[in-house]
Amino acid sequence: MNAITLDDRVARNPSILGVETDEREILLMDEDSGNCFALGGSGLLVWRATEQPISVRDICAALRAHYRIDEETCATQTLAYVAHLAAEDLLRRLPDPE
Fold first, then answer.
1. 4 burial class (0-12, 13-18, 19+ CB within 10 angstroms)?
2. CA–CA separation, 50 vs 9, rounded Å?
3. pTM over cut 0.85
4. Which ranges constitute the DSSP H helices of 4-97?
5. Nearest CA among 15, 86, 73, 97 for reference residue 46
6. How far apart are CA 43 and CA 20, in angstroms?
7. Which of 9, 27, 68, 76 is most exposed, with minimal Cβ within 10 Å?
8. pLDDT, tens digit, for every residue of 21-48?
9. Could you count the other beta carbons within 10 Å of the beta carbon of residue 87?
10. Phi/psi of residue 81, each to 5°?
11. Are 93 and 10 in contact (CB under 8 A)?
């Protein structure tokens, strides 16, 4: 599979259940595998941003609106994090619209 790019659109895996424990953390469980995850800070913001399909570029824009971070650093870190979430099957890359 090719690396995720800023123009790729991603969406949550529908088999992931989540509950926010407070304003700073969400606990996730994959119904299929039983794996559990906890996301906080910027991870929680990424998860909230992916409630609907969204481009990685738009996720980065949402993070930049919340944190003081330059565009290049945000892009690099967001791409790596989204790739990690996709590798764990929490997020899925959507096919290009035709």
1. buried
2. 10
3. yes
4. 42-49, 56-66, 71-87
5. 86
6. 12
7. 68
8. 987 899 999 998 999 999 999 999 999 9
9. 11
10. -70, -45
11. yes
Contact 16, 30 (CB under 8 A): yes
The pair of three-digit structure tokens given for residue 17, joined into one six-digit string: 């259940």
**Whole-Å CA distances, 33 to 10, 17, 63, 90, 91:** 20, 12, 29, 11, 14
Which residue bears the tokens 């979430």? 85
* Residue 47, SS3 per DSSP: helix
CA distance 88 to 37: 10
CA angle 44, 75, 86 (to 5 degrees): 55
pLDDT category, 90, cuts 50, 70, 90?
Answer: very high
